[in-house]
Amino acid sequence: MSDPILDTDFIKEMARQMRALDTYGTYSGWTVxxxxxxxxxxxxxxANIPLIGDPDEETLARVKxxxxxxxxxxxxxxxxxxxxxxxxxxxxxxxxxxxxGKLVAVDKTLxxxxxxGFDSLSKMxxxxxxxxxxxxxxxxxxPAVAGL
Amino acid sequence: MSDPILDTDFIKEMARQMRALDTYGTYSGWTVxxxxxxxxxxxxxxANIPLIGDPDEETLARVKxxxxxxxxxxxxxxxxxxxxxxxxxxxxxxxxxxxxGKLVAVDKTLxxxxxxGFDSLSKMxxxxxxxxxxxxxxxxxxPAVAGL
Lengths: 148, 148
Known about the structure:
Structural class of chain A: alpha+beta
Oligomer: homodimer
Number of helices of chain A: 6
Helix content of chain A: 40-55%
Largest interface: A-B, 16 and 16 residues
Shape of chain A: globular
Strand order of the largest sheet of chain A: 1-2-3
């Protein structure tokens, strides 16, 4: 029996985001778990990544996929355009924001982007749910700004 | 007699922003007009820049200086932290935003960043004044979001 988490909107959207990046069809025939496996950063995997480093293109693509997926879920819930923006400054520091109208619905300081990942897919979903819930609450509190 | 525009807060702040980037003291002894001269894109200068191109580091630094200066002026006026973010996507397209709390006070789509510039310093100040005035009005309308 497959993990029920794989049937959630968020995980489905994450897989969709990753498939959209898969220009050469590498993922064809892959399970969702296999496609999303690079997001899972177990202790062993983490130990193999240097403490300080610049994120590579693939890691950055995963960070963007994560915030894109959250933006899609925000749009689905509130029917307003949600625009993600992942901005790196230096050495893996940066800022991820999602704007809805003139409201910053998600605002997250990024650190150690080259070590971006989660203990498990379940932990990733928990983090996404948190960001989504804060965003929707804020949009609910300030609908005029979100509608600007 | 020098142009009164050089005594405005905006132009002074622009010069300050540019001097902050001047690691090697190249600008020492330069007039403000000379320091800000690369922002002036006369018709002749514009004609010498290809229609499509990637912005170089110096052009990008000028775009950032422009939005940094506006953020500083917003802070001065409303006494809240204003955070600028200039994000390029591809071929000189991008987005410049300034957030104050969870409010997007400035939101500007960037096009042809490699051709960033203004007819004159006066035109640059006019554009900055417009952005500043929209930002301050929006902050005034939604102080709760700006204070988040």
